[in-house]
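Human: Here is a favour to ask of a fellow structure person. Comparing notes only helps if you start from a blank page. I am asking you to supply a protein in sequence and C-alpha cell form. Write it directly below this note and I will take it from there.

Assistant:
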Amino acid sequence: MSLGILDRVRAAAQEVAARANYVRIDESSIPAYVASLPIEQASSPKLDPRYHYLGDPREIVAYILTLNAINFGSGYFPHLQKRPRLSGYFTIATCLKERFETRGAFRARELCRLTPEDCANIFEQNLTKPPIRELMGLFASAWNELGRHLLDRYEGDFVGLVNAADSSAERLVELLAKMPHFQDIQTYNNVEVPFYKRAQLTAADLSIALGNQSFGFFNDLPRLTIFADNLIPHVLRVDNVLQYEQSLAAKIDAEELIGAGTEEEIEIRACTIHAAELIVAQLRRLEHKVSALKLDYFLWNRGQQPEYKSRPRHRTRTIFY
C-alpha cells in the first residue's frame, strides 16, 4: 500500500536524519528539553489581527491562500525594507492585510496580471536593489500561477479550492502541490525528500484563522508535520536539540547563504521534521495533546525572542520558505 503524502514527508525526513553528515539530532536531550518547555503556550495558536486579515470568512480564505502563495523569501529578507519593529514575514503579512482592508481580496484574474512592480508597490519595496527585484519577480510569478490555477480548476474561486479538499488538510496539501511553486521536493543522495512547508502551513493557517470551523474545518490536522523553514531549525539549534557540523555552523554564523537543494540545506530541514516528531512523541508519552502543528507555532513564536533573534540563522534563497 502506497504511503500518503504526509507519511512520505515523515519517512523521508527520518531517512535523511539517519544518513546526515552535517546535522545531528541529540536524541538524548529530548526528554529534558520537553520537560523544560512551557508547553501550555502551545495549546491554542492564534493569528494576530494586527498583522493578518481576519474579516469576512470568504475573504480570510483568499487572504490565507494569497499570503501563503508568497510566504517565502527568508533568504532575501536581510535586504527587505521592513516596517518598524516588524520582521520580514510580519511586514509582508501586514502589507497584504492592509491591501485587503482598503481594496478587498484579489480576484483570480487580478493575480494573473500582477507584475514585480505591482508587488513592490504592495509591499513598499525598492526594485533598484537586485535581491528585492528578484524576490518581487518571484512573488509576481507565484501569484500569477495561483490565479491561473484557480481559473483553470475552480472557476476563479478561492473557496472552491479549499472545498475540494473535503475537510482534509492532507488533501489540501495534495491539491496545492499541483502548483509548481508549492512542489517543495528535493533529492538527497537519490532519495526524494518532500517537505510541502507552505502547503501544510496553508491548511494550518486556515484552521487557526477560522477557528477550525466553516471553510477552516479539517478533520485530520494532527496529520500535518512541522513546517520546515529556517526559523524552527534555528530555535532547535540554539536549544541544543540540533547540532551542526563545524563547517556548516561556521557558514551560518558568518551569514553566508546556504545553497537551495544542497545536502546541508536538506539535512537542516529534514532533521527539523524528524526532531519535531521525536519531541511530539515524547509529549504524548507525558500525555500532552500537542500536535506538530501546535509545536510549530510554539517554536516559531519562541524564535521571536531576543536570544534567538541575536544569533544568525541559516539563509537560503528559495521559493519554499
